[in-house]
Amino acid sequence: MPPAEPDQPCSLRLLWDEAVTTYDFGPGHPMDPTRLALTMRLVEAFGLPAAPGVSVAAAPPAGESTLALVHRPEYIEAVRRAAANPAALDERHGLGTEDNPAFPAIHTASALIAGQSVGAAEAVWSGAATHAVNFAGGLHHAMPGRASGFCIYNDAALAIARLLELGAERVLYVDVDVHHGDGVQQAFWDDPRVLTVSLHEHPSTLFPQTGWSTETGGEGAPGSAANLPLPAGTGDAGWLRAFHALVPELVAGFAPQVIVSQHGADTHLEDPLAHLAVTLDAQRVVAHSLHALAHRHCGGRWVALGGGGYAVVDVVPRSWTHLVATAAGRPLDPRAETPEEWRAEVYRRTTQQAPLRMTDGRAPQWRDFEDGYDPGDRLDQAILAARRAVFPQHGLLA
Question: Residue 237 burial (CB < 10 Å; 0-12/13-18/19+)?
Fold first, then answer.
């Protein structure tokens, strides 16, 4: 079962600037910025910005020197060129492609999202807030010199780099997006100060075809990466079993000063781009678990980001509203009805009917890995492979 909810009070900095919705690859692209606007409207409809201990702020866009903490100067210049000439194809830098079409705001919108994640990291490290959330962030595929997988600037890696610049000595990154957190792993592959942990659909069935359990860090930082690839079709019980078999022990062994997490909602069974079968209710359990782990192991310091998620109406806004509510220390009753004004806004923007409740109607249960292992089960095989690959490097028993 997940760690108990913390007794300590929480303060939350919610990073939001309406202009993040200009991160828009155009009609028909899966990364629809409507999902961001609808999430913020649902957060507002539940009154979370006005809750005690919650502040909403917009950070400035990440500047050149900040972007250069992760990205090469020639790549940043390529993004600027793409903004000036969106019709051009730049395959070398992954720009103008089907996944990453260029658009006039490609640099400004991407830098703005990155700035919100950097601002979230600064707020948590300085003590201005216990937790910080930027659900517009989590663009974890961007590489130092190349766009990838709908991601232009890697705000998650930039947030971690900023924490290191501010003096953090141990940062734990946990990625529960359905896709492997390859860009963040790449950025810190040889840095023993950062442990990247990713649970994702198996690379044999999903982009970016990386994230094997044998990927455990560079020569200078053995054990700096942990990967648990999950069989296609994994549902709530298996997903939660895998998370709790890997993450809590690594948190305890690594003893981070701060946790940065990426909460892509595309693990959901309704997501059109992947093949897991997780529900909103299990996603909420993982958010609660990370909240409790942050309080237990690093004084509550927790930076939570969004990520993928392409069921724009039914899944993403509810999943990330639960994330915000959890970080505010005011978790929502999953049986709560979605506010009527939000449903009206959904219809106005999309002509779709909004979900009526904050739940998929499930009460997820799972069996702890310590209670028994089935050598014939593909999920248990994957869990054991991940633990055997990385646990010994942190002094843990697999």
Answer: middle
